[in-house]
Amino acid sequence: MLIVSILDDDANRLIQRAESAWGKGAEAVELRIDALAAGIDYIRQYVARSPERLFIVTCRSRSEGGRFAGTAKQLSERFTPFAFLDNVMIDAEFSSIDTVRQVEVAAAQEARAPLERPEGVTPERCARLQEALGTFA
After folding, report:
1. Cα–Cα separations (whole angstroms), residue 136 to 104, 129, 131
2. Residue 42's pLDDT is what?
3. Which of 25, 30, 49, 56 is such that its CA lies 20 to 30 A from the CA of 82?
């Protein structure tokens, strides 16, 4: 499998580079969001419009060799928009795994409220996520 990793500090350029990678035969694209100062929701919208494509979303801290200098809460806020997209895998370093699990648990809990459920999130998807996270909740 050909996976292309893309890091940019501009959301528009990140998407342009992703499109270029898809055009050159990438089978998956890793979107490194650790350098972005803004544009996370814009990236999420782009990913959501391409359900047939596989994306890996990564946010590396400086201690992990990346450019993200935020807190665990800010890391959680970066990953949360991608929590219910079926075509996304979240890539986190072992030191970030607790934060990622908290994002997943919080997203599953929020999705239980029908009026607050993100578009396209079915009760079945919520149940699958909750089942998968059962040992972490």
Report:
1. 10, 11, 10
2. 96
3. 25
